[in-house]
Amino acid sequence: MTAAADRTPTAPRRPPFAGWLGTTNDVTKTFLAAGRIEGLINMAGGLPAPETYPAEALAAIARRVIAEHPQDALGYGPIEGLPELRDALAARLGGPDLSLTRDNILVTTSGMQGLDLLGKVLVDEGALIAAQAPTYLGALDAWRPRRPRYRALRVDRPDFDAVAGLTGARFGYAVPNFSNPTGRLVPMPVRRKLAEAALATGTWLVEDNPYGGLQFDGEALPRLIDIAAGAPPVAAPGAAYEGPVIYMGTLSKEIAPGLRIGCMVAAPEMIAALTMAKQGSDLCTSGVTQRIALAAIEDGLIERLQPELTALYRARRDALCAALAEHLGTWFTFEVPVGGMFVWVVARDPRIDTDRLLNAALEAGVCIAPSSVFDASGEDRSAFRINFTLNPPERLEEGVRRLAGAVRRLAGA
Ligand code: PMP
């Protein structure tokens, strides 16, 4: 008699997945899967508070723009973005020394697409990326399929040498405002060093700025692109910007991430290259959301939302930092961020392993983001990132209490 298995025709072998998929480490997988655990307090993500999304205002705008601009909203549009939106972004993002034209602007399907396009136009296998360390996980994810090498830009160190950092790299990558993951500001002297090094070496320097609008205390510092544009010779008014800084913005944190609208500001030759890459990616960003974004900018929606948003997040930051100091101060240190969405919590004892802490935290019903996922080499286990924008104060405090329980268990205390 033939066994049932013998009668089943053998399925043909499927071709393998691309090799880079095998290079994602287990912690990244655990961390990404954690969102589905029921009852979990998610303090790992970089998510805005959903109650801040201006649903009614956006619904009214959407209805109006689709009725008034059906062709722009519902048809295929130019790859670079709708001309009116590019003009509005050029006007909004220019500065006293930074003259921008439409040719400096690419509308993207949010910041993540911009990072992906940068990989497409600048990274061949083995190419060197000089990235502020620790580095935004989404950027590492976007560039991973291209198998780059990394050099860590340690912008927090007093002896940081920006020229040595950028020399030989395809591009530098920095998040100067309330960095993801550390929540820190790159201080003014280091901003100057980075901008001057980009000008001196000719290296492209990517300034990723999703959090600049979420500043709770103090004055905003100049952007890298302003500093670079202000160095002589300053461009004539009305001329296109030609410098080495590639600036990236998004409406995800100041309005709503579901819009998936962002933009890149760069020299026209870079915008042309990115446009070629975008053509092979999505042909154009949704016209519906581009028209909504344009109307939101023209209506002053961002400025109207900002005071309430920053007040809410400031209070949540304070609640999280108070809870961290009370429950985790023995084992960890942290700086209070003046903006953004994150606190970077560093172990006092080098024996604390934050990869192991992630597993213990998940068992305790809370999720944090361990430092290894923000390290191109995956080795740093000395810190974790914790978010304060998604949860209200009582949940933040409960999350930190659960985390402290996990730390005590790990420490055998
Ligand atoms: N860059 C950084 C540093 C971020 O933190 C994020 C969002 N987490 C992004 C880019 C991308 O955001 P989005 O695609 O929503 O614009």
TrEMBL record:
Its cofactor is pyridoxal 5'-phosphate. Keywords: Aminotransferase, Pyridoxal phosphate, Transferase. One of its GO terms (molecular function) is transaminase activity. Gene3D superfamilies: Aspartate Aminotransferase, domain 1, Type I PLP-dependent aspartate aminotransferase-like (Major domain). SUPFAM superfamilies: PLP-dependent transferases (SSF53383). Residues 56-403 form the Aminotransferase class I/classII large domain. GO terms for biological process: alpha-amino acid metabolic process. Pfam families: Aminotran_1_2. The keyword Cell division does not apply. It comes from the Bacteria. This is PLP-dependent aminotransferase family protein.
